[in-house]
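debug: dumping io for the single-chain case to check the tokenizer round-trip. Nothing else runs in this session.
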Amino acid sequence: MSKKIVVLGGGISGLATAYWLHKEGFDVTVLEKNKEVGGAMETVLVEGNLFDRGPNSGLETTPVISKLVKDLKLDKELIYANQEGNKRYILRDNKLHALPMSPPAFFKTKLFSASAKMRLMLEPFIGRSKDGYYQSISQFVKRRLGQEFLDYAINPFVAGVYAGDPDRLSVYSAFPKLYELESKYGGLIIGTVRSIRERKKRAEVSKNHAKMFSFRNGMQILPKKIASELGERIQILADVESVVKSDNGYKITYNNAGDRKEIVSDYILSTLPAYVASNVFKGIDVKLSEHLDSIEYPPVMVLYLTYPIDKIKQPLDGFGFLIPKKEKKSFLGAIWSSVIFENRSTPKNASFTLFVGGARNPELFSLDKEIIIKKVLNEFHEIMGIEVEPSVKSYRYWSKAIPQYNVGYIEHERYCDKFEVENPGIFLSGNYRGGISVGDCLKNSELVFEKIKNHSQKV
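debug: decoded output
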């Protein structure tokens, strides 16, 4: 008799794990609150333009991704970023500077001063920190690379990845591979060189060299394809209210389009956001709820714009640009969507995706959304040399966007591990555990699947 498992949440983490479990012979049910699966993966057409309202791409850092794509027969739908997307810009003094990607380019760039370049050369001679797990990214980078590199490289990068604040994010939890370069090898430069061989053995690619991918019809194609494979095993409009222990396993109570229902399962995999899982598991462990409630999810607005190409003075020859906090702008950066992937805008037009708010500026959303957008447009137009209004304008506001792996996050991770040990059969996953990126979520889906499979074989 196959083991029954209920997956809470139909985002990419839950769906991918459910897919592996179904293939292994588990009796799988997925409960999804919304009318569509995908979680933050939302793709819409706006006047013929393709707008990814959550993640717009992924990095092919693990063979799990190609394995899943091939298994789902999405090979022809998969697309890789155009070469122009390799060039990235940073705003400094209101001008765009290409991020140097080679030693010669680094020494020539005006993005960093001569003193900052000399400071970087001292990195191999900086000793290991004594702060261990409890250092912010700012502390780590300032000590190893200097203030200017923190301000004009790491600060905008952190905003681009987490919409986060490097003064608060934990280097150990948010950027574990960066932390490992120091703890394992003694430094970033020497660690980068020595770790290349180890990644090759694991068939992994560093995020700096991984190919960026998406799908011809947007990122939501991936969760939709998995959902089509799972079929009636997915229940939409299923809002999970609570989980309690029962004689036969765990009893899940949920609201299904107005009807209150219950289901008993041998196993539960929760991929719900931390702030939702907090209420669901409060009846089992109040301390877990306290940990989950303390995980920060700042608000982010994703703003989509299109313009006639001939009205844009800035050459469109890159991925886009990120904005350091020191530049004091209302938004975090812009992706040049139609440059990176085909089929993102109508002919003769260029499309852009801007990110607003985050942990850097959450109070911005006390203003009316249209006032925010007008302010952002004025700044974006000045940077890009645009003197016309956008042909298309659309946005998606996420009141709770990306979990912040802040300093001390290791305590949440440890307690989640403890909770799983004390409540065998319940597994906690999602982007607040093991990384926030699409690649991290897909890699973790296979790891969690193996964890559940191994547990079932021992019982």
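debug: round-trip ok. Residues 121 and 145 are 8 Å apart (CA to CA).
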